UniProtKB/TrEMBL annotation, chain A:
It is a multi-pass membrane protein. It comes from Sphingopyxis bauzanensis. Belongs to the heme-copper respiratory oxidase family. GO terms for biological process: electron transport coupled proton transport; oxidative phosphorylation; respiratory electron transport chain. This is cytochrome-c oxidase. Pfam families: COX1.
UniProtKB/TrEMBL annotation, chain B:
It catalyses: 4 Fe(II)-[cytochrome c] + O2 + 8 H(+)(in) = 4 Fe(III)-[cytochrome c] + 2 H2O + 4 H(+)(out). PROSITE patterns: COX2_CUA (PS50857). Keywords: Membrane, Transmembrane, Transmembrane helix. It comes from Sphingopyxis bauzanensis. It holds the Pfam family COX2. This is Cytochrome C oxidase subunit II.
Length: 814, 184
């Protein structure tokens, strides 16, 4: 009965209070993970309905079902929804739900961030839905190429909805990526060294890192395009020194890694499920990890293969063509590891396996056509035709939807506690599989017959008619299959009998808990000795529930979980996680009001939410922590550890490091944009450079040097930041040419604004650190807070110095 | 490329099928053989060959200075194509129809008045974008006289689907008549 007593005690600490207030305030990762997945699935259905409308339009030549204005909204929204509002949030939700359970932790590292991310996603996604209901949805393609999306050719509010709504959703993706990466690196069960991590955690680690590097270029691009649309800053306008290709580079710098960001989590599910289905450990764990790392790295070197027809020199194309084919190698490694695993074991044809076969067949075909379009001469023909539509659906539906359906059937009993007991899933599979291949295999042929993408109509008698009709029929067959899947899941949710724990006899830790899982996951944390803890200790779940692991004693009402040394998995400290709070919702609402005000062009009013964000951010960090030291606390099994407020590398420190990496990626993309325009864009040099001023540069650099000094107090650091800020603002308002005159002035203005914003932010953080120390918070005296303040100060110093150099040096030298 | 892809796809399917057939066979499976052989060596060998071939073909398709080449201008706008080329009595401008001699390489210089478009005649060559501020050149050649359909391949707004044109390739006599300014 000890297990039940523990359950009640932990439930009181970790649970979500009943009622709407509790639902709004919850920060529990299981609840939020499910919310993300359900929301993403709803968006999947909406995107699917749009796809059906597209296929209805294309079923016959000369169709008058919808006109081009509506049709352009349909395919723009189909692509945007499936990419940004379905695929990414779906795997994020899955990772948010599953990672702590697989890693033997009780929650993610930043529970309030998890909640904030969900709210941002919900609000940003809703903005796009509203635009659709009003008939003013984005209509310039999901890639929003300029100048089609610029003010002269898209004067309506449509593109603004995309730029602002998607950026809002991207904020959610960035904070979630930080949350995931820190949780994987720090919040694991004791003994789980890096090489004992479940493969899924490796996949998510690389995915999250890619999100941190890959999403900021798009965020930057969106900011620049919105600035151009709103204020006429000509970043992408050739006549004033901009270049529409800069948008394409920024977009695909995000857009190609994005494909792997979507594929890797699904591949992580595959690598988890296949060995269980084959009843043998995965073949080549180390090889797979190496392949994931290689894929993450390579995926940033091939974005130009989306731009083979823009007139880039053939030699440069050769490099990107080679990189695009090279990326097939780590993918091949994984596929052969999966095939080898199936050979090594005794594969069983359960429902998840059926979907995995659907995945393998479809994805391999998509990969093969991918190699074809990586060949430059072939791509010159196939680019922007239905062949590409077919290829990308083979990769994304094959590489993401099929594995996620397999994952749904594999893990459903984890969510529901019920046993799978219907055969509808099989029928659903065949409908989806046959419908999919009918739809998209034929598109290869229509593409080769010359049918371009994004046409709302086509003439009769060019040989596309029959294929298009059959494609449309296939699409509706596939939709029927999806409907059957939904019915099947609902039946299982409400009618299926209770399942035994760990029905697949899997080895990973997520099965070592009640199903459905309690709010705290596990009553005590296990000591891990190998990659499949449940394989060696099948009774682990019971022993953990009885409190035989770590942190089995509820203390002070704290939400405790353990942080370990990243590499070895040795116990490092106790993390006391924040409880339920309305702050995430409030912050997301204020963030949303900022985007809404920009959308409505009420620019002066945006100062209100910006000030609100500073206040809320301050409060966000202030409400945590303790004013007296606890020292080493017992954690069970005879071990002791300090709490995170009393160590210097707390999760907050790690979170700041990774957030600054994402921030740095955005800054790097901005510098790239500056250099790109300077060297490649037409209509350069600009009519006027920044008026160089040696005194301003010296004052700014002096300020930077003061702020960067380790030994000085907060006052000196603050004064240094103030001086740097003044130099930046002087340059922007007194010395720089107008941002509307030429792309040079525009990009200089953004550089200076970026650096000034960071100097101001560092100033606020330094004030915060000082106020906390004065108030006597332990974390501000012995913990990570001074270190975090130092990190952001150093960042601001570096950004400020670089911005000053970029703006003044060219003029000083010329 | 198609045959190779089909063979690889067949191989993967066969391996997958056999994995289920051989259930119960107990010889151990070597990770190195599968992963190094199947996942590393096999794709690297195939892809290197394919890549080399692709680059050679790509190089041959590039426009090169050549006295036999005819140079024409193609200006795209929403939603129209204007072609300009030298004639015997001064430049000839045509709208939505490009006249070319058959059997002679043509360099099409692509420009745009507004958004990005792409010039594509599927039966004559690959495609190339017309980008504001950056003229591009595409080499096309019609080996036989006839009419070839061309279209805009880059999404350019509401009229994108109707942004097509024709290429008329003339025999020697027809070409002479066109150049002289007679209606073809």
């Amino acid at each position: 009965m000890k297990a039940l007593r523990l359950h009640r005690a932990f439930e009181a600490i970790w649970g979500t209070p009943a009622g709407w207030r509790g639902s709004l305030a919850t920060v529990n990762h299981s609840t939020l993970g499910v919310r993300l997945m359900v929301t993403a699935f709803v968006f999947f259905l909406i995107g699917g309905v749009l796809a059906m409308l597209i296929r209805a339009q294309l079923a016959t030549p000369g169709s008058a079902f919808v006109g081009p204005e509506i049709y352009n909204q349909l395919f723009t929204m189909h692509g945007s929804i499936m990419m940004f509002l379905f695929a990414i949030p779906m795997f994020e939700g899955f990772a948010i739900y599953m990672l702590p359970k697989m890693l033997g932790a009780r929650d993610l590292a930043f529970p309030r961030m998890t909640a904030y991310g969900w709210w941002c996603y919900l609000f940003g996604g809703s903005m796009l839905l509203v635009s659709m209901l009003l008939g003013i949805a984005p209509d310039a393609g999901w890639f929003l190429y300029t100048p089609l999306s610029s003010k002269p050719y898209s004067p309506g509010i449509n593109s603004d909805f995309w730029l602002l709504g998607i950026t809002f959703v991207e904020i959610s993706a960035i904070v979630t990526a930080v949350d995931i990466i820190v949780s994987i690196l720090k919040l694991r069960a004791p003994g789980m060294s890096l090489d004992r991590m479940p493969l899924f955690a490796w996949y998510m680690l690389v995915t999250a890192a890619m999100m941190l590097i890959g999403f900021p270029p798009l965020i930057l691009g969106s900011i620049l395009l919105e600035l151009e649309r709103a204020f006429g800053w000509p970043f992408f306008e050739a006549a004033r020194g901009g270049d529409s290709l800069l948008w394409q580079h920024l977009f695909w710098l995000f857009g190609h890694p994005e494909v792997y960001i979507i594929f890797l989590p699904a591949a992580g599910a595959v690598s988890t499920i296949i060995p269980v289905m084959a009843r043998t450990p995965i073949l080549g764990y180390g090889w797979i990890v190496a392949a994931i790392l290689a894929l993450g790295f390579l995926s940033f070197g091939l974005w130009v293969h989306h731009m083979f027809t823009v007139g880039i020199p053939h030699l440069a194309l050769a490099f990107f063509s080679a990189a695009s084919t090279l990326v097939a190698v780590p993918t091949g490694v994984q596929i052969f590891a999966w095939l080898g695993t199936l050979w090594a074991g005794r594969p069983q044809m359960h429902l998840p396996m059926l979907y995995l076969i659907g995945f393998l067949v479809t994805f391999v075909l998509g990969g093969l056509t991918g190699v074809m379009v990586a060949m430059v001469p072939f791509d010159w023909q196939a680019h922007d035709t239905a062949f590409i539509t077919a290829h990308l659906h083979y990769v994304l539906v094959g590489g993401f939807v099929f594995p996620m359906l397999a994952a749904a059937y594999y893990w459903l009993s984890h969510f529901t506690g019920r046993r799978y007991s219907y055969t509808l899933g099989k029928a659903a599979f065949w409908l989806i599989f046959i419908g999919f291949h009918l739809t998209f295999f034929l598109m290869h042929l229509t593409g080769l017959l010359g049918q371009p993408r994004r046409i709302d109509t086509y003439p009769e008698g060019v040989g596309w008619t029959l294929y298009n009709l059959l494609s449309s029929v296939g699409a509706f067959v596939m939709a029927t299959g999806i409907a059957l899947f939904i019915i099947d899941v609902l039946l299982q949710l409400f009618h299926a009998p209770r399942a035994p724990r760990n029905p697949w006899r899997a080895g990973t830790l997520e099965w070592a808990m009640m199903q459905p899982p309690p709010s705290y996951n596990i009553a005590s944390l296990p000591q891990v000795h190998d990659r499949e803890p449940l394989e060696t200790a099948p009774d682990l779940a019971l022993s953990l529930a009885r409190g035989e692991g770590y942190l089995a004693l509820p203390r002070n009402g704290w939400r405790e979980t353990l942080a370990v040394d990243t590499k070895s998995g040795r116990i490092d400290h106790i993390v006391v996680l924040p409880g339920n709070s309305l702050l995430p919702l409030g912050t997301a609402l204020v963030t949303g009001s900022f985007f809404l005000l920009v959308l409505l062009k009420l620019y002066p009013w945006t100062l209100l939410p910006l000030a609100g964000l500073v206040v809320l951010g301050w409060r966000w960090a202030w409400v945590l922590g303790d004013k007296h030291a606890h020292g080493e606390l017992p954690i069970g099994r005879g071990d002791h550890a300090p709490i995170h407020a009393e160590v210097r590398d707390s999760p907050g420190w790690w979170g700041s490091v990774f957030l600054s990496i994402a921030d740095g990626s955005l800054f790097a993309a901005l510098i790239f944009g500056h250099a790109y325009l300077w060297t490649v864009a037409p209509n350069w040099p600009p009519p006027a450079l920044v008026t160089a001023s040696l005194p301003v540069v010296i004052a700014g650099l002096l300020g930077a040097a003061l702020a960067a000094r380790r030994s000085s107090g907060v006052t000196v650091t603050g004064a240094g930041l103030g001086l740097l800020l003044t130099a930046l603002l002087l340059t922007a308002f007194r010395l720089a040419p107008s941002p509307t005159s030429h792309a040079y002035g525009a990009v200089v203005a953004v550089l200076l604004a970026y650096a000034a914003l960071h100097a101001a932010l560092a100033l606020v953080i330094c004030c915060f650190a000082r106020a906390r120390r004065r108030a006597g918070y332990i974390a501000a005296i012995n913990g990570a807070e001074p270190r975090i303040a130092r990190l952001w100060t150093d960042y601001a110093v570096a950004a400020g110095a670089i911005a000053l150099a970029c703006t003044h040096l060219p003029a000083l030298l010329s | 490329m198609l045959a190779g892809a089909a063979a690889i796809f067949g191989l993967v399917c066969a391996l997958l099928l056999l994995a289920f057939r051989r259930r119960g066979a107990d010889q151990p499976v070597s990770a190195t053989a599968w992963i190094v052989g199947g996942g590393l060596l096999f794709p690297i060998a195939t892809l290197s060959a394919l890549l080399g071939y692709g680059l050679i073909v790509g190089e041959q398709l590039l426009p090169r200075a050549d006295s036999a080449t005819l140079r024409v201008g193609a200006e795209a706008r929403r939603w129209q194509w204007t072609f300009t080329q030298p004639g015997t009595a001064g430049p000839i401008r045509t709208r939505d129809v490009l006249h070319v001699p058959a059997g002679r390489p043509i360099d099409v210089e692509l420009t745009t008045r507004d958004v990005i478009h792409a010039f594509w005649v599927p039966r004559l060559a690959g495609k190339m974008d017309a980008i504001p501020g950056r003229p591009n050149v595409l080499r096309i050649e019609a080996h036989r006289p006839g009419v070839y359909h061309g279209l805009c391949a880059e999404f350019c707004g509401a009229g994108h689907a109707r942004h097509g044109f024709r290429v008329v390739a003339h025999d020697a006599a027809g070409w002479a008549r066109f150049q002289a300014g007679e209606a073809p």
